């Protein structure tokens, strides 16, 4: 199949690219990362295993997405903290760009458009586990942008019949992950015996190892389009872990001498508990998580150890 992966040079998108290119699909990546800096897929681009379009989704033209069977959308400003300091940048990248994609899709007719949603849109005081129909109360600018993007995709689905499927995650972690994510920050500081900064601590997340998410994305590729058109699925482990507990597990696995410093909650984080119900994805897609937290963290820690060995000390906060 001809597959377009928007944001395919990032953490999740590049993982999907590497999987699908080995299955003889024709893969095109569109990303704002300059080709020579797209390190996670650079070898595939240089060996002409994939095509690379250096472009923002805000500048998409219908011709850019014409002729593709499947389109995955990973393109986003993906960091919650940046949503606080740059809310307009976040809105442009996470809402206006989705409007642009949808407008282009009015002139193109892929079999599937799969949007990467976020479990952060549910906010505090939810009954657990959280299913796909639970009320969404975005509690920060980033979460609001992801919620709005979902609304946009489904409005175009209803108005114009554009095939839309949303896959929501909790925190996705693993090898090649961005170093701004809390899991990465804790691991790096633990390996360097530096203080781990826990903001709040009692808030929880459903933390999913990246290969589980890639499994779900492949299942969406394979399943009949009529089954998933207009649907939302949760890709998760069904287990909640507090940020404080995450820090403690990482300290144990790394045998670190680091201490934990507790800071106040970030805005909107207090009373947030997250445990996503993935029974719908299990029933309709056959999704089941295979790697759970401690094993996933062991694999991720091993990768960060090799990165520190290769590149020397990293700094993080």
Output the CATH class name of the domain at 2-177 and 208-237 and 277-291.
Alpha Beta
Q: What general outline do the C-alpha atoms trace?
A: globular
End-to-end distance:
43 Å
Radius of gyration, in angstroms, nearest whole number: 19 Å
* CATH arch. level architecture of the domain at 2-177 and 208-237 and 277-291: 3-Layer(aba) Sandwich
Q: How many strands, what sense, and barrel or not for the largest sheet?
A: 7 strands, parallel
- Counting H and I runs of at least 4 residues, what is the number of helices? 12
Low-confidence stretches are: none
Tell me the CATH topology of the domain at 2-177 and 208-237 and 277-291: Rossmann fold
Structural class: alpha/beta
CATH-defined superfamily of the domain at 2-177 and 208-237 and 277-291: NAD(P)-binding Rossmann-like Domain
Strand fraction equals 15-25%
Q: Percent of residues in helical segments? A: 40-55%
Main-sheet strand order equals: 3-2-1-4-5-6-11
């Amino acid at each position: 199949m001809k597959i377009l992966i928007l944001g395919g040079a990032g953490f999740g998108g590049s993982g999907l690219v590497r999987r699908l290119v080995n299955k003889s699909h024709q893969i095109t990546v569109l990303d704002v990362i300059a080709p020579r800096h797209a390190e996670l897929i650079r070898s595939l681009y240089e060996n002409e295993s994939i095509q690379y379009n250096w472009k923002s989704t805000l500048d998409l033209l219908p011709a850019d997405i014409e002729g593709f069977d499947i389109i995955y959308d990973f393109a986003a400003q993906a960091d919650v903290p940046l949503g606080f300091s740059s809310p307009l940048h976040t809105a442009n990248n996470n809402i206006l760009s989705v409007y642009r994609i949808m407008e282009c899709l009015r002139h193109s007719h892929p079999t599937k458009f799969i949007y990467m949603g976020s479990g952060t849109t549910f906010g505090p005081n939810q009954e657990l586990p959280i299913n796909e129909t639970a009320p969404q109360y975005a509690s920060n600018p980033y979460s609001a942008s992801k919620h709005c993007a979902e609304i946009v995709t489904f409005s175009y689905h209803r108005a114009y019949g554009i095939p839309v499927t949303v896959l929501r995650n909790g925190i996705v972690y693993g090898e090649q992950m961005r170093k701004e994510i809390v899991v990465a920050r804790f691991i790096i500081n633990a390996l360097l015996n530096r203080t781990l900064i826990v903001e709040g601590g009692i808030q929880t997340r459903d933390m999913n190892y990246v290969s589980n998410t890639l499994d779900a994305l492949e299942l969406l590729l394979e399943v009949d389009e009529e089954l998933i058109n207009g649907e939302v699925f949760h890709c998760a482990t069904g287990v909640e872990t507090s940020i404080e507990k995450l820090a403690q597990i990482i300290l144990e696995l790394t045998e670190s001498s680091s201490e934990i410093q507790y800071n106040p909650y970030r805005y909107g984080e207090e009373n947030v508990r997250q445990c996503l119900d993935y029974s719908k994805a299990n029933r309709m897609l056959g999704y089941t998580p295979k790697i759970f937290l401690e094993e996933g963290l062991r694999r991720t820690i091993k990768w960060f150890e090799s990165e520190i060995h290769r590149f020397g000390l990293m700094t993080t906060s």
